[in-house]
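Schema walkthrough. Field components (list of strings):
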Amino acid sequence: MTGPATLALASAYLSRYPAEAARAIDAYSPAEIERYLSLVPPERAVPVMNALTPMTGATVLERLPVELRLAVLQQPERSRAVALLGQMPDDRREQVLGELPDGLATQLRQTLEYPEATAGRLMDTAVFSLPAEETVGRAMALLREPHRGSADVHFIKLLDAENRLAGVVDVRKLAFNSPDTVLSSLARAVPAVVGPMAPREEVVEALEAHSLDELMVVDQEGRILGIVRHGTLLNALKSEASLDIQTMVGVSKDERALSSSWFALRKRMPWLQINLLTAFLAASVVGFFENTIATFTALAVLLPVVAGQSGNAGAQALAVTMRGLALREITIGHWLRVMRKEMNAGFWNGVAIAITCGIGVFLWSGSVGLVLVIALSMVISMVAAGIAGALVPIVLARLGQDPAVASSIILTTVTDVAGFFSFLGIATLLSGMLVAGG
Amino acid sequence: MTGPATLALASAYLSRYPAEAARAIDAYSPAEIERYLSLVPPERAVPVMNALTPMTGATVLERLPVELRLAVLQQPERSRAVALLGQMPDDRREQVLGELPDGLATQLRQTLEYPEATAGRLMDTAVFSLPAEETVGRAMALLREPHRGSADVHFIKLLDAENRLAGVVDVRKLAFNSPDTVLSSLARAVPAVVGPMAPREEVVEALEAHSLDELMVVDQEGRILGIVRHGTLLNALKSEASLDIQTMVGVSKDERALSSSWFALRKRMPWLQINLLTAFLAASVVGFFENTIATFTALAVLLPVVAGQSGNAGAQALAVTMRGLALREITIGHWLRVMRKEMNAGFWNGVAIAITCGIGVFLWSGSVGLVLVIALSMVISMVAAGIAGALVPIVLARLGQDPAVASSIILTTVTDVAGFFSFLGIATLLSGMLVAGG
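Field assembly_structure (string):
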């Protein structure tokens, strides 16, 4: 921030490309970010605040001038305020909430009581609802009142005498009916609702099943508590769809890049311990052939090559199969076709890799026996890897498990054992062709 | 399909839970699926057809009675018809298109000319558009005509004198304005448009940036070609968000679970060959210590345990960091915080695993020296794995690359080399404490 020209450029960037500019300053100190935000008028600063990561946003929020802080927290899309407040320590959160109008503060407090990644936490409690016996004319008059925010209302929620959700009326229908039409005559059933404690996964399932614009959250009596809006639904979908990458390696669904080390430690440990057990299993295969290795130490050098290649080939098969299941492009019933495809791909990739690898090993060792051993075991273990990569997620799904959960750890065990066993087994069988000492 | 009771049950299941029932029958033969579909009235059969995987759906479609086939292809959401026709061989597709009204057939043919996973292929060409100078009254009259499908129209697209997209009018606004209001006075700018050749990735970026309900596809002159509807946008978002799992292990973006073996072979091969190179690099580390291994063969047995554990710990760190970048919860600027977290988690997980592993190795070998070697190298290599898992995606992103591309292959190289080097290096240093021969 040197001359006035630089300032003007920075301010133009923040105004015109708030999301991009926010990414660029996100890792600066809160004081610096606050200084940048002061370069632009408040209505331009809000989009920048929205695009900051929640953790940064929360620390910056506390330092902002009160009017800008209020502008951020009073946006129509409540979920942003909830995300920021959710990142704050309790005492400072209460201080910030104290500045807000009582009604909004109470609503936000209620939302924040629900656990993270539940429908209650994702919902916006400001809902446009009317008694079912109201008329089109009355609904239109209310929607026209500016503070109702008619631009955000897609569906009017109809309530019965006990204030339970009785149906919804598409706002667009108001245009085609006379003012004295009773709303309930235009209502249609709500395709899906969830309870406030429903996990994000269930929210996303409802979104996908009905291609919803918004999702209503109701209590046990069917009274409406809030709605999860479109932008929040999209974020939830993205979050769920990218989860497999974590669960496949034994990371908890709740861990995020900036979770504490302690959280990461505690949640990852069990799978690492299980992985250790499976590693011992693979090691015992190697131990079984210890005499062969003692005679031909070159085998120890090449052992990781076979296991590494089959591990990678297996991971490829696993990734494609898991994604196919997640996107519902295949079902469990397709197991034979998928397995055949991966077996074929594994075989021919195995042959190709065996050739390259064989040339490399020949140049290094000059031993035709060693080339034969590694080439044969490469093909065998890559076929095994293909089969396992296809079947592990399908079998997990068949057993009613999430096909991603720790699939990578299971697969690695299979590919390690197959790689070690085929390589050392063939070496033992063909030991007459190998040169002792490497 | 035995008695009448079974038939009634099957038919009830198909009618009431079409999506679930479709998953259950998806892997049956097309003839069997067709027989099941004949159990329910056509309007109940369409949702089942919609929930079948596209590949199965396409083969079943050809066998259906003509009226049911037409019902499937003439649904308002065109993208389903496009997906099914896209799976058919050219000759049979033409045969099916021949049964459709000329207008629809031409529209579908045009859409099918765009490559897969482009905006052109995803769009629906039936768009409700009007000249900008039309009035609210005329728009409402047209929307009321049943065949216009007013239920699907959220925004009226306004066209200028050259038929270019000039803005959109929210259908809900019609309700609040007199019939003689000119539409252009109610218009707002279109937040985002894409060209028909825009890749799905760009479609998803526009969706996320503006939280869109639908996305307009325009040609170079700005004339509207079609719209990508909400359900299709959600599928595209899910498809993109789950892509990292493939790209991280060197699988092409275009591969699907049922792609041909040949496609899989061709596209995966380059990364497998690169992986072979890196495997030789790791092997050369082992080769460097061949003398140590020749003396203490127990090292060869335990070598994969260290590399396997650090590989798995690294994969966990990688997954969480990559997802954080994808969900924009962190930026490149957070590298130090993320690295510190993963270093800490790696160290303490390393200590815990070193203890368990040490006990196991002591029980197996009774050698305190070996326990010391594996425990020390476990901690070192797991810290290295944590650091690498955090930094690999961040460095890739910094270099302007997709943080997922082949990150897993790069990481494995790092963890293998770190694991082998620390384990064999420490063993060589402490060789006085080891027992020759294992």
